[in-house]
Amino acid sequence: xxxxxxxxxxxxxxxxxxxxxxxxxxxxxxxxxxxxxxxxxxxxxxxxxxxxxxxxxxxxxxxxxxxxxxxxxxxxxxxxxxxxxxxxxxxxxxxxxxxxxxxxxxxxxxxxxxxxxxxxxxxxxxxxxxxxxxxxxxxxxxxxxxxxxxxxxxxxxxxxxxxxxxxxxxxxxxxxxxxxxxxxxxxxxxxxxxxxxxxxxxxxxxxxxxxxxxxxxxxxxxxxxxxxxxxxxxxxxxxxxxxxxxxxxxxxxxxxxxxxxxxxxxxxxxx
Length: 271
Prior knowledge:
Strand content: over 45%
Radius of gyration: 19 Å
Number of helices: 1
Structural class: mainly beta
């Protein structure tokens, strides 16, 4: 029962954690997508974005219908990250060129932001901001910065070298519930307010597929789902179901859990 309670929390995003189930039959494999899939993500209405090894990005509906194809596969090299927080403003980031491409919901290019024009050359992580601008972490300046669609710098924090003995090296940036979360797998998660004031630092190291659901920090390792709430003393963990083991990536959304294995994306929906 304990395992199923935890999985239902994940799959339904019921943040008060008052849901229980009786059997493992609460979840079932509802869809399998096969093909050249190097990575994927899912937006808040259930559309799936499939990235191939050749950098072709496809968007399909929850029912599997094709909704768009992004074919600028050779323009800026390899795609490093895709942010679909806002399905009407999709962010495609190219780390090698420090360039962000914005597309519409059909994956048509709307705008390009070249961070190099701001003198910024080393950025690993980006994320959509609360005001529809874009957060990124400037590794050379050790600052969290926010840029507008026209490429102008909106805000920047204090140099983190003045705040920390070790500067964070975030691979994930998530803006949610008036906090900006930076996740560094070697040093944990840093939570800032929108003005750049540090609110919390928790050493949640070596988590995979880090995300934030409400005020819960969610991730996994090779054997367990992991959950932590800011201000608490302990980390909850539950064993991964056998079907999820050896996954390349697992993404949890409100109605389903998505599990990527080699060239196969499995969608497990709650019954």
